[in-house]
Write a structure and sequence with these properties.
Blueprint: E1 8-11, E2 31-36, E3 52-58, E4 68-69, E5 78-79, E6 92-103, E7 106-110, E8 119-125, H1 138-147
Antiparallel strand pairs: 1-2, 1-8, 2-7, 3-6, 3-8, 4-5, 6-7
Bound molecules: S-adenosylmethionine.
S-adenosylmethionine (SAM) is lined by residues 17, 20, 22, 59-62, 84, 86, 93-95, 113-115, 118.
């Protein structure tokens, strides 16, 4: 194993979790900045060409993990690995953001759902080759169907 270290920190409009949209139909339109530490600057070469990025980050302000979670989009508990709960054995978050522009080590993005100053572990270009019709959405599809 390895000891993870932040490659940077998120500047986000969210100072408190209550302000972050949650539940069915929540839209993540908030803009933020991924501020990458200068020592990793060279690692950003070519990133401007990608419209969307995967951001891996740390839930640095979550409680202890629980193996089941009841998400805001449902009233039933589910296994933590079938949810996006912050309270996971390895508290790692994954968010897809739209890259708006780069200014040196600052990536201006849309779609942040993390708190201000959240540590960033990694960034990768978003590439998906799975057609929408091949995706199954598990319990979430049932919760969505009940809502409509
Ligand atoms: C449901 S999680 C989903 C995060 C990510 N998109 C994922 O799927 O891993 C998003 C919630 O995590 C919480 N959160 C955001 N930043 C956090 C942080 N730095 N530490 C702990 N909890 C955080 C907020 O309550 C936010 O609504």
């Amino acid at each position: 194993m390895f000891t993870p270290r932040p490659i940077g920190f998120v500047t986000s409009p969210y100072k408190d979790t209550v302000a972050i949209p949650k539940g069915l139909g929540a839209r993540h339109e908030a803009e933020g900045v991924l501020r990458i530490l200068p020592e990793f600057d060279l690692g950003l070469a070519g990133i401007e060409g990608f419209s969307h990025l995967f951001v891996l980050w740390v839930f640095d302000r979550s409680g202890p993990f629980e193996l089941t979670a009841t998400p805001p989009s449902d009233n039933q508990p589910h296994g933590v690995f079938a949810t996006r709960s912050p309270r996971r054995p390895n508290p790692i978050g994954l968010t897809v953001v739209e890259l708006l522009r780069r200014e040196k080590g600052s990536l201006y993005v849309r779609g942040v759902d993390m708190l201000d100053q959240t540590p960033i572990l990694d960034i990768k270009p978003y590439l998906s080759s799975i057609p929408a019709e091949s995706l199954r959405r598990g319990w979430l599809a049932e919760a969505e169907a009940l809502k409509h």
